[in-house]
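Hello Y.,

Per our agreement to keep a running log of every chain we model this quarter, I'm adding this entry. I've kept the format consistent with earlier entries: sequence first, then predicted structure.
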Amino acid sequence: MNQPVLAEHVGNRDELTAALSGWTTPRALPGLVADWPVVQAAQESDDALVQYLAQFDRGVTVDCLALPHQEDGRMFYNDDMSGFNFTRNRQPFQSALQQMLALAEQSEPDSLYVGSTTLDTCLPGFAEANPMPLDALAPLATLWIGNKSRIAAHYDVPDNLICVTAGKRKVTLFPPEQVENLYVGPLHFTPAGQAISLVDFKHPDYDRFPKFAKALEQALVIELEPGDALYIPSMWWHHIEGQQTMNMLVNYWWRQTPAYLGRSENALYHALLALNNLPDSQRQAWKALFNYYVFGESSRRFDHIPENRQGPLGDVDEPTLRQFKAWLANNLKQ
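Predicted structure for the entry above:
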């Protein structure tokens, strides 16, 4: 049975960075940005929201996804998974917003969605007018705006704080260990970069996806109103629905590790290529090695090796790490 997300009440936004550093599970933050001017404009009307955003717009062209009404807002693959059920085009941000206003007048509107657009590039000055004091985390701020939409369950490697500024969002979250029960699609061919669950959350097919029922038993569900925020930890799966004629959120992504460590996903991709087709006995042997070298819980398991000979088994600084990456890249050529 679905469980609610634990709610937290931070005294003020200046205390948020310290709070975020201590959380490892999702947290709802009711009313965190209710005082933002953009939230107040959106609560007046969709037109007022568009007018408010116009003062920051500098004519930037954005990536837009268009989806026929028959798809019921679900951004997904086409029937044979040879492509996608939406079309992609680029147009000025204001043009996209005007289209959304026009769609709101239709009884059966198509969906239009502008996602993952860097806030400072698209709307310079918006962040200063609607502040979020997370400078210590060096986050990337992006905006997402559209009418009715359903974004398939996926995970993101960075930690994520989403702030609803217009409309309503329903978010369903799953811990990382539920991956087997979410029936995830291809890694190399995805609608927006991240692998997604193939389950239609609105109409789940339990004959095709029987273990999805187990995932739902562990799901956390929350409905966010304008001004509410939600912290989504790294690697947690999340399905997001925009439910109104105009839905907008601003999110902040950050990593807890230095950028020079690189993309963790690359280790998964290479492991699949190198190990997936080995005989089972060898796969089990490599599993034991990974459990020892990579996922071992004892911080002292390499103490029998002199510290100056531990190499990548020990703590390495950025220059040394780059040397080992070069060594790895050279080995990958063979």
